[in-house]
Design goal:
Length: about 425
C-alpha cells in the first residue's frame, strides 16, 4: 500500500477503505509518512469530503491511536455532553449536577480554553482548592458516590487528532466538516461514555456561523457516534448572542451557581434543561421528553441539582465557602460601564466580538502559554430584543486596568440598535438523532 495512491483516490473523489485509513494513521503516527503527503490528503478531503462510513472509520482509527478510558467500574449508563463552544457557555456547571441529581453518572473530561475565556477546567479553578487532577480510582470512586466528576483531559487521548489538527491549522484545512467531526468525536469516544449529547452552536459567536453548516456538522457527528456504538444526540442551539449575562471565568461560575440556586436566566436555564433531558432519555430513566423536562425543572427548583454541585466541588477539594458566599469569588479592580449612544431595540449582537473583548481584558488566552485572570470579564445588561434609551448601560467591563477604551469600543460596536421592535431569538433550532 502506498500513501500516494491513497491521496490519488481521495483526490479523484473515491472512498477510502478501512485498511487505507488505518494505514495512513498508523504510519503517520510512526513518522513513516511525511507531513507533505498528509497535508495533500487533508486538502483532498477538504475538497472532496468523506462519506459517513469513511468519517466513522477515520474517527475509530484516531481513537485507537492512543489511550481509551475504561468507565466500566462506574455503575449505570454513563452519558457525556460536549459543546462546540461559544461565548458565555457555562452549561456544564448546571447540566452535570442536574443529570447527577437525576441519578445518572457523569464522568467528564474537559480541556482548557484557547480564545475568549477559559475552558471548563479553567473556570472550575476559579473556585480555590478545586483539584482538576484525580487518580483513575479517585475519578471512578467520585462518580460512583456523587454521580459527577470533572477532570482535565489526559494527554494521550486520540493523539492522532492532536497531530493532524496541528497540520490542518497551518494548511488551511481546519474548516472541513468531516475533519472537524472526527476530531471532536475521537476524543469523546476515547473518553469512554456510553452515550453522548452534543451542543452544536450556530450563529455569530459559534465556530459554525450558518445554520446549514451547523446541521451538517451535527448530522456528521451523530452518524459517527451511532456507527461506533454510542447513542448520540445533537442539539443545535443559538449563539447569535452570548449565553446568559456573564462572560469570564469567575463571572460564569457565579451565574451558573445562581441558576442552580433558583435565579431565572431564561436562555441558560432552557438550554441546560434541554441538554440534560436528552442525556436522561439516552440513559432511559424517563419515558418521554416532557416527563424528562418536567422532572429536571423540579430538580433545579427544589435545590437538588445545587446540592449535587456542592458535593461535587467538595469531593474535588474545592473551598465550598466560595459557593456559599459568591462575593468571595475573584473580582476585578475596575468596573466600567459601556453606554448606548442611541435609543431603540437591540437587533443583533456580534457575540464573537464580545468574546474577543473579554479576552483582551484577560479572561482568555490568545496563546497557550497566556495566563488567565479569573476575575475579569463582562456583564451584559442588554441583549437581543431589549429596549434601550440613550445613555443606558449596555454592558459592564470588569478589568484590572483602568484604561479600557479599546475594549469598550469593541463591545459598543458589537450591538446593532434599530428603532423597530424585534422578537427574542429562539434558543433551540433542532434536535438531531
Amino acid at each position: 500500500m502506498r500513501m500516494v495512491d491513497i491521496i490519488a483516490r481521495k483526490r479523484n473523489g473515491g472512498d477510502l477503505s478501512e485498511a487505507e485509513i488505518n494505514y495512513f494513521i498508523t504510519h503517520y503516527m510512526n513518522e513513516e509518512i511525511p507531513d507533505y503527503q498528509v497535508s495533500a490528503l487533508m486538502m483532498a478531503i477538504y475538497y472532496k469530503g468523506m462519506s459517513g462510513k469513511e468519517t466513522a472509520l477515520l474517527t475509530k482509527a484516531m481513537v485507537e491511536s492512543g489511550d481509551t478510558i475504561d468507565l466500566s467500574p462506574i455503575k449505570g449508563h454513563k452519558v457525556d455532553k460536549h459543546s462546540t463552544g461559544g461565548v458565555g457557555d457555562k452549561t456544564t456547571f448546571i447540566v452535570g449536577p442536574l443529570v447527577a441529581a437525576a441519578g445518572i453518572p457523569v464522568a467528564k473530561m474537559s480541556g482548557r480554553g484557547l480564545g475568549h475565556t477559559g475552558g471548563t477546567i479553567d473556570k472550575l479553578e476559579a473556585i480555590p482548592g478545586f483539584k482538576v487532577e484525580l487518580t483513575n480510582q479517585q475519578f471512578i470512586d467520585n462518580v460512583n458516590k456523587y454521580k459527577l466528576a470533572v477532570v482535565g483531559q489526559t494527554g494521550n487521548l486520540a493523539p492522532a487528532d492532536k497531530k493532524l489538527y496541528a497540520l490542518r491549522d497551518v494548511t488551511a484545512t481546519v474548516d472541513s466538516i468531516p475533519l472537524i467531526a472526527s476530531s471532536i468525536m475521537s476524543k469523546k469516544i476515547a473518553s469512554g461514555a456510553d452515550g453522548i449529547v452534543l451542543d452544536v452552536k450556530t450563529g455569530s459567536g459559534a465556530f459554525m456561523k450558518s445554520l446549514e453548516d451547523s446541521k451538517r456538522l451535527a448530522k456528521e457527528m451523530v452518524t459517527i457516534g451511532n456507527q461506533l456504538g454510542r447513542n448520540t444526540v445533537a442539539v443545535i442551539s443559538d449563539m447569535n448572542q452570548p449565553l446568559g449575562y456573564e462572560i469570564g471565568n469567575a463571572n460564569e461560575v457565579k451565574e451558573a451557581i445562581e441558576v442552580l440556586q433558583g435565579k431565572r436566566v431564561d436562555d441558560l436555564r432552557e438550554l441546560a434543561i434541554e441538554l440534560a433531558a436528552h442525556m436522561t432519555l439516552i440513559a432511559g430513566i424517563y419515558r418521554n421528553y416532557k416527563e424528562a423536562t418536567d422532572a429536571l425543572a423540579t430538580l433545579l427548583d427544589n435545590g437538588k441539582a445545587y446540592d449535587a454541585f456542592y458535593q461535587f466541588i467538595k469531593a474535588q477539594s474545592g473551598d465550598t465557602s466560595y459557593i456559599e458566599d459568591l462575593s468571595k469569588l475573584s473580582s476585578a479592580t475596575y468596573q466600567v460601564e459601556v453606554k448606548a449612544d442611541e435609543e431603540g431595540y437591540i437587533h443583533e449582537m456580534e457575540a464573537d466580538e464580545i468574546g474577543l473583548a473579554a479576552m483582551h481584558l484577560g479572561a482568555g488566552r490568545a496563546k497557550k502559554e497566556d495566563k488567565i485572570n479569573h476575575g475579569v470579564g463582562i456583564t451584559l445588561k442588554k441583549k437581543i430584543a431589549d429596549q434601550v434609551k440613550k445613555g443606558d448601560t449596555l454592558a459592564i467591563l470588569h478589568s484590572d486596568r483602568d484604561d479600557v477604551d479599546d475594549v469598550a469600543g469593541m463591545v459598543k460596536q458589537a450591538y446593532m440598535i434599530k428603532t423597530e421592535k424585534i422578537h427574542q431569538r429562539k434558543m433551540i433550532y433542532e434536535v438531531i438523532k
